Amino acid sequence: MIEGQASEFVFAQLPTEVLSDYNELTTELTRLYRLIETSRSFLAKFSRRNQKHGEKAEDYAAEPKQLYDKAHKRRDRSTRDEDLVRRFLDGLVDQEVKFEVEYHKRPMNIDEAVFHEVNFIQTRSGSKSL
Fold it and tell me: How far is CA 18 from the centre of its chain?
């Protein structure tokens, strides 16, 4: 939704005849400001996606899966699994967890990586409370 000064700017740029016809207005606004997403834009989002502080591994893993599938519709399963595991591990906030999962567990797919990450976190927090 366009509000405030942004709406004043946008509407000042449009011809009067467009402003008086709702269908023309929505068509013109869509043409000017719609977000066009391509496989390339999904790939860019996938490549930049990192875990946010406080974000659970399960939640973090879900978005890269969706982005990857939109970016690479025809990738074979093994390449997909390898790419998703790499992105998941590279984006982890906790470097100790990353090392443990990557080098000691060597997950074959992102679901295994998430399982090992969650398991390691639980084990580590359990041993700290002893």
Answer: 36
